[in-house]
Amino acid sequence: MKILITGGAGFIGSAVVRHILQNTDDLVLNVDKLTYAGNLESLASVADNQRYQFSKTDICDREALDQLFSQFQPDAVMHLAAESHVDRSISGPADFIETNIIGTYQLLEAARKYWNELDDQAQQAFRFHHISTDEVYGDLEGTDDLFTETTSYAPSSPYSASKASSDHLVRAWHRTYGLPVVLTNCSNNYGPYHFPEKLIPLIILNALQGKSLPVYGNGQQIRDWLYVEDHARALYKVVTEATVGETYNIGGHNEQKNIDVVKSICSLLEELAPNKPQGLAHYEDLINYVVDRPGHDLRYAIDANKIKQDLGWVPEESFETGLRKTVQWYLNNQQWVSHIQSGEYQNWLNQQYRLNPTD
Ligand code: NAD
Ligand code: DAU
Q1: Given 56, 325, 333, 344, which is the most exposed site by the fewest CB atoms within 10 A?
Q2: Per the database record, which ranges form the NAD(P)-binding domain (predicted)?
Q3: What does pLDDT average to over the chain?
Q4: Whole-model pTM?
């Protein structure tokens, strides 16, 4: 297969590109604008692969997309490009509207034009796979419920509202124009190459540097964590095996309170990085409860039974094994980390956590 992947230089996209090139004979065209979150160093292990191409392109640029479709002639699109950080969507929603909504619209239109010109057989085989989030379903506060594929949409943040909007566009392009789409909505991912604005890598790196560990509100919020390589395997199964028009929820059955995640990281670091910054007795001493995220969703949890039953996918990694691998990966990959901790990243930390630039 020839697969056009958007956002392949991001956290999940790079795991998908690596997974496909290392485990299949498929060809990949990675289309990525390289925003602050895009990092070609995450693809160093596959950059020289003959089956891999990269194009630095904004998905809002329709003309460039048309050219890429016509040159590469993909059998499938896996659409991961997005602005993905909830806190950034609160402090500046514009990029989220632009990329997540307008960008998805432009990509759908480019895909539709290309698909319309294919012969019947190629039209039937073509897939547009939209990769989305469980955050479109909103908040499960105070219930034992799980998100299923039929849960109503109730997004809370500018980020989740923009992703919900993109999901609706994709379904409309299927129903109205017949574009052969599949959708997935996944829970919180974690693992190697995760940009350190998100909870797990932020806590690991702050702890190693003896900086405070910011826990929003009371830390009782719950997320359902999935190891990123399990997600990449699930996505490949969906794009290659799912029936057109289907949606799959993907999750790890790993509900954890934020404060417990932070404490688990501290305890792993006690074991794996016992030489602490000077003057620090325990990593947990760095925990700092800070002002809560506005509109903070209290609980997410995924029912992943449909993908298990239809496609036979189950996660391979438990939270314990996955978190240990992740902490070890950050300890072993200080060069990747130091390149990412650029001026732009420092600006974000200073603005978000009101840090003194010299901290
Ligand atoms: P990320 O922020 O790490 O990466 C996003 C990538 O998209 C970056 O490489 C960036 O350069 C690229 N990009 C951004 N705007 C672009 C544009 N206009 N044109 C082309 N490229 C652009 O995100 P991620 O965490 O890897 O998430 C990937 C996708 O998966 C997103 O659609 C996100 O909504 C979804 N998702 C993420 C999670 C999670 O826990 N991270 C969970 C479920 C779903
Ligand atoms: O559920 C899937 C979503 O998971 C994806 O769609 C998003 O792209 C991804 O960023 C993630 O969103 P979250 O908001 O859940 O992830 P984040 O890592 O930002 O935060 C996880 C939890 O930890 C959340 O309840 C907020 C809290 N938190 C986060 C940060 C950055 C803190 O307590 N302190 C922090 O400093």
Answers
A1: 344
A2: 4-326
A3: 96
A4: 0.98
